[in-house]
Amino acid sequence: CSRPQKVCLCPFLPVHPLKVSTCLYIIQHPAEESRVLRTVPLLAACLPPDKCKILVGRRFNEDRYPELATVCRNPNTLILYPGAEATNLEEVAVMSSSPSVMIIIDGTWSQAKDIFYKNSLFRLPKQVQLKPSISSQYVIRTQPTNTCLSTLECAAVALSIMEKNKSIQETILHPLQALCSFQLQHGAQIHHSKEHLLKNGLYDKPMPKNKRKLRRMELLVNNIKI
Fold first, then answer.
1. What does the alpha-carbon distance between residue 21 and residue 145 come to, in Å, rounded to a whole number?
2. Where does 51-126 have alpha helices with state H?
3. Same domain, yes or no, for 79 and 103?
4. In tens digits, what is the pLDDT along the chain, a chain of 226 residues?
5. How far apart are the C-alpha atoms of 53 and 37, rounded to whole Å?
6. How many domains, in total, are found in the chain?
7. Locate the DTW domain: which residues (predicted)?
8. Same domain? 197 vs 131
9. CA separation for the pair 180, 190 (Å, rounded)
């Protein structure tokens, strides 16, 4: 896990990499590399190297990333990005019998949106989303809404659906749960979502002056999907 011995997470990782047929391509915003409490390294430690490939950058074109371009054109490739055009992953998994490739964007919501819309390659695969049925266990980092998940959690849920094996989700979430537990024991505080803070009058930061950001906050308070 590459963490200090005192907070080592290796005992919480699977003894052997999980056997999965689905291959993940994690498209990581460069800013994520400098974050101390990243979840992607834990995800990669749970999977075989050839089933979890991490590409760091903001812009991806066919000339610089020919392998990624080929993957995006593959009819079995999915991209996990919620929106009006996205199909629920459960519906896709029922119809799929062949091994799939899934692309997941790793970054803040604004960073992920920037990567998705400014790279035409990412609009080639079938767009899928997860049903908002679970709350994030990544309680040491503030999420926009109660149902927003970290990259590791998204991958855990998605893989369990694609592989039709619920235990995969439990195995991948195990090191995340341990990470949060360690951090809380060493002084970290539980971070409620921005949605929770706004609705309960607990948001203590200055309200944004930017009208677009202010409108997003109003939608969160009124429980309108954004």
1. 31
2. 66-73, 89-95, 109-117
3. yes
4. 777 787 788 888 899 999 999 999 999 999 887 665 678 888 999 999 999 999 999 999 999 999 999 999 999 899 999 888 899 998 888 776 666 899 999 988 889 999 999 999 999 999 999 886 666 665 455 555 555 678 888 899 899 999 999 999 899 988 887 876 766 665 555 554 444 444 556 555 665 556 666 565 455 445 544 4
5. 19
6. 2
7. 1-188
8. no
9. 9
